[in-house]
Design goal:
Elements (H helix, E strand, L loop, with lengths): L1 E15 L2 E9 L14 E10 L9 E6 L2 H16 L4 E14 L2 E15 L33 H4 L7
Antiparallel strand pairs: 1-2, 1-3, 3-4, 5-6
Length: 163
């Protein structure tokens, strides 16, 4: 599947008696920053759209959604690669799991295995065409050469040390 990361939302959700009762989420690409710490009874929320590329799911839109820290960490790893590449290509991934032990319990966390990249422009018809503009770099104004005030600056460093 191709992960359409501009669609990603992160944040937190609250569950009471197994039902979602509140949600504080926003799109990453819009600059939303989730809380650093979650209040009691809140869980991390991570979601993004994908497009199937295998023979059985080609072109099918799907959603990856997780309310676990494992899902958030898997997303963060994928998003970091995407942002380092300048948001110009989307990762082609398959969803895998890793088995870990936490608090004496076996836990299965999602992992996105990147097998390739597709240009962002390939998904323009879905509204994901051009990458966001890059930040401007510093101005490249030429430096002005200034002559040295003292042709022999080492002579100015000779002084008496009184000990």
């Amino acid at each position: 599947m191709v992960a359409l990361l501009p669609s990603a939302t992160i944040g937190e959700v609250k569950f009471e008696r197994g039902q979602k009762t509140d949600e504080r989420t926003g799109r990453v690409e819009d600059g939303f920053v989730p809380a650093e710490r979650l209040d009691r009874d809140w869980a991390p929320s991570t979601a993004f759209l994908t497009v199937g590329v295998d023979d059985n799911n080609r072109g099918q839109m799907m959603t990856f959604r997780s309310t676990s820290w494992g899902g958030r960490f898997a997303f963060n790893g994928l998003a970091t690669m995407y942002w380092r590449l300048g948001q110009h290509a989307f990762p082609i991934v398959y969803l895998d799991v890793t088995k870990k032990w936490r608090n004496d319990q076996e836990v299965f966390d999602p992992v996105f295995r990147v097998i390739g990249w597709r240009p962002r422009e390939d998904f323009a018809e879905l509204g994901f065409g051009a990458a966001p503009p890059a930040l401007e770099g510093p101005s490249a104004a030429p430096l002005e050469a200034k002559p040295a005030a003292d042709p022999e600056p080492a002579a100015a460093l000779i002084d008496d040390i009184p000990f």
